[in-house]
Write a structure and sequence with these properties.
Length: 712
């Protein structure tokens, strides 16, 4: 552990030293906009700028995402070292890890601060940015994994009228066109409208994955008076595209990534159908100034999702000797192929948040207080699904099997109601020192039942999650802080006969995070150095005495068993100089299983979690209007299986691009050309352990993209 932290602190301190030196240098005056001068991410709940907050909150603007060609959530793994892939397949929804923990797509995503489900393809066309709050998030969410929270910020009408047109082409045949128009009306320009339209023909280099998508979004605002603002918006998007089936281990061997065609999609049967996501989002928000410095806000959001989830699904195999490989492919490259279809899935979310914030003087100290409540409902409705054996596939993609679309398997419908009360307070102890408090109490009720009416569960639970922090400004632009917080996860034992506690609510699992950080923030320089320690209790199906496996009736119990402990060091630097800048981050992570009653599990590293991660993106003007960009990504080795028996090597990849801006009359034309994976590196990008099976996804091959943006 000492070596872990010494190496991490050395690299992290180097990044901060570079930031400090850049801050001290005399630089030409340039007009820049950075997070230090922008509004605080709504995720934090505080009005202080990000550089003054005792937490790690990352804000990625639409401009920054666009420069790197990022059009979906999974793309942010290019930018931040603490964010990595977690089963990211072409054509499917994005899944992330933050600080080594899986982001729960059901509970850890927000849209303009309101809860949504991420079990769909979420469009970035009408988003002004993505915000990421790292680590335990009990102050912001009633129940959530300790990975953090991701928030999508919707584009709103601008102060000045403007229109942007975009046309983009990507090697393979993908083409996207979009328009972004903002305009204000009224005698005092009190009405605002913003329209975003986009359509794409999807044809990536990955074969057998052609599709299409489109988005239409409208956002409006109405400043009724100097004290009242009403905002409403609606978004429709649809994506239809076959998804990507992952590779796997070949027996006890990791296949050589150099020998595998990264453009081969094993979801290539004649009967393979696209995954279809139909999404509707809408919200209404009212902001009202009250007496003094107090403000009130009410926000209502809805999400209506419909999905056709379909895949030629590879899972396990039986070899010629009769041996069954449950979690990988056979040594000869064959695998069992299943026809999976779950169509007409519906997921609906409705959320209402009401809050008030303002200053209060107590005991001679100023308190900046926010009090509020959040009520949300989630409902999922499914029909029976197909999950049928269809034959034997192989890793060269040449096998053809018959379809097996009969709806033979039951699905599970779910309902959840949650009511949350929350309090946030920043206490100014002195001019340089502040105490911070967050407290959230949640009452939730959850129900589930199979589509045939069996295995019903129904339970209620109340949980409270505190968060406290202390910060001190050691200089005008430097902040040191320490924080401690809890997160909560709630679960019920499956209502199956093999569990002695079938259908019973399990004790709420309380994750805990301790974090110590150093931050700086100016218009030219932002940097941070953070040490964190997260403990998350773990569930395990424990075989009871008298049984050898968890299969017979009353043979096992789902119970808490030890914990996962993730300790690490993060460093980040966002430097801006005349004609260029650097955005870089690094993380060294030690993630281990500890405290299990099964000693063989203790000390194991979770699969698909690299210990060392580095991300950097530098930009520099070469000529007037011409800028060069270079990105470097490195992810260290990881394991493909929970028992740590097979390691996946580290990889490093480089991306490069050019941007040229020119004035054409009153217009600005921005030309971009870029190449991802410049050296055509062959490696396994990630090794997700999903559905008790080991999968492998290769790095995408060298890919060229180009675009033209016209700002009218």
């Amino acid at each position: 552990m000492a070596r872990l932290f010494s190496l991490s602190v050395l690299g992290a301190a180097s990044a901060l030293l570079a930031a400090s030196l850049a801050s001290a240098q005399t630089l030409p005056q340039v007009s820049v906009s950075g997070k230090a001068t922008e509004a605080v991410p709504s995720l934090s709940g505080f009005n202080d700028p990000p550089a003054k907050l005792p937490m790690q909150a990352l804000s990625l603007s639409a401009e920054r995402l666009g420069e790197l060609g990022i059009s979906q959530l999974s793309g942010i793994t290019k930018l931040d070292a603490s964010v990595s892939d977690a089963y990211n397949a072409v054509g499917y929804w994005s899944q992330l890890k933050i600080r080594g923990f899986d982001l729960d797509n059901r509970f850890n995503l927000r849209r303009d601060g309101l809860p949504i489900t991420g079990e769909t393809a979420l469009s970035l066309v009408n988003k002004s940015g993505i915000e990421v709050l790292k680590g335990s998030s009990g102050m912001q969410a009633g129940t959530s994994s300790p990975a953090g929270i991701v928030n999508f910020v919707v584009k709103r009408p601008l102060a000045e009228d403007g229109t942007a047109l975009m046309l983009e082409a990507i090697q393979g045949g993908s083409v996207q066109a979009s328009v972004d128009h903002s305009q204000r009306f009224g005698a005092n320009r009190e009405f605002g409208v913003r329209v975003n339209l986009a359509a794409a023909h999807l044809d990536p280099t990955l074969r057998d994955s052609k599709g299409r998508s489109h988005t239409a979004a409208l956002a409006t605002d109405w400043r009724i008076g100097p004290d009242t603002l009403v905002e409403a918006e609606v978004e429709f998007n649809r994506q239809s595209q076959p998804s990507q089936q992952g590779f796997s281990l070949l027996g006890n061997r990791l296949p050589d990534a150099k020998s595998v065609d990264p453009n081969l999609n094993l979801n290539n049967q004649p009967w393979s159908l696209p995954v279809v996501f139909d999404n509707t989002h809408a919200s209404l928000r009212v902001q009202q100034k009250l007496a003094g410095e107090w403000r009130a806000q009410a926000a209502l959001g809805i999400q209506r999702l419909r999905t056709d989830d379909r895949l030629a699904y590879a899972y396990g195999c039986s070899d010629a000797n009769g041996d069954y490989y449950a979690d990988r492919f056979c040594p000869d490259g064959s695998y069992d192929l299943y026809d999976f279809r779950s169509e007409n899935e519906h997921r609906d979310t409705t959320a209402l948040d009401v809050s008030a914030s303002g200053p209060v003087q107590l005991a001679g100290l100023r308190h900046d207080v926010t009090v509020g409540g959040l009520s949300s409902q989630f409902k999922s409705r499914f029909q029976r699904q197909a999950y049928n054996y269809a034959g034997t596939g192989n890793v060269d993609g040449s096998a053809v099997t018959p379809a097996a679309p009969d709806l033979t398997d039951e699905n599970t419908n779910r309902d959840e109601r949650s009511n949350e009360l929350y309090l946030r307070d920043r206490v100014a102890l002195s001019a340089d020192t502040s105490a911070w408090l967050g407290l959230r109490h949640t009452r939730l009720h959850r129900e589930s039942v199979r589509t045939d009416g069996s295995r019903a569960t129904d339970y209620s639970q109340g949980v409270t999650t505190p968060w406290i922090a202390l910060s001190h400004a050691i200089a005008s632009d430097w902040l040191v802080y320490a924080s401690w917080g809890q997160g909560i996860e709630s679960e019920v034992a499956p209502n199956r006969k093999r569990f002695v506690n079938a259908g019973q609510a399990l004790p709420a699992l309380k994750s805990r995070q301790t974090e110590i950080g150093l931050k700086t923030g100016t218009q030219r320089v932002e940097g941070s150095l953070t040490v964190f320690d997260i403990r998350r209790p773990a569930w395990r199906d424990t075989v009871l005495p008298g049984f050898t496996e968890c299969s017979a009736d009353n043979s096992c119990e789902r119970r808490a068993d030890g914990y996962a402990r993730h300790r690490g060091v993060e460093a980040s630097a966002d430097l801006k100089w005349s004609g260029g800048g650097l955005f870089a981050s690094a993380m060294r992570l030690q993630a281990r299983r500890q405290g299990s009653a099964d000693a063989s599990l203790n000390g194991l590293q979770p699969p698909n979690v690299p210990e060392t991660t580095l991300k950097a993106h530098v930009r520099q003007d070469l000529l007037p209007g011409l800028q060069a960009q270079l990105g470097i990504r490195h992810e260290g080795s990881r394991f493909a299986t929970p028992d740590n028996s097979i390691a996946v090597p580290a990889w490093t990849v480089a991306d490069a691009g050019l941007r040229y801006m020119q004035g054409v009359g009153n217009q600005t034309w921005i030309w971009r050309v870029a190449v991802d994976n410049l050296t055509n590196r062959r490696a396994w990008r990630e090794s997700p352990w999903q559905f008790e099976h080991s999968y492998l996804y290769p790095l995408a091959p060298r890919t060229f993209r180009t675009s033209l943006e016209v700002r009218l």
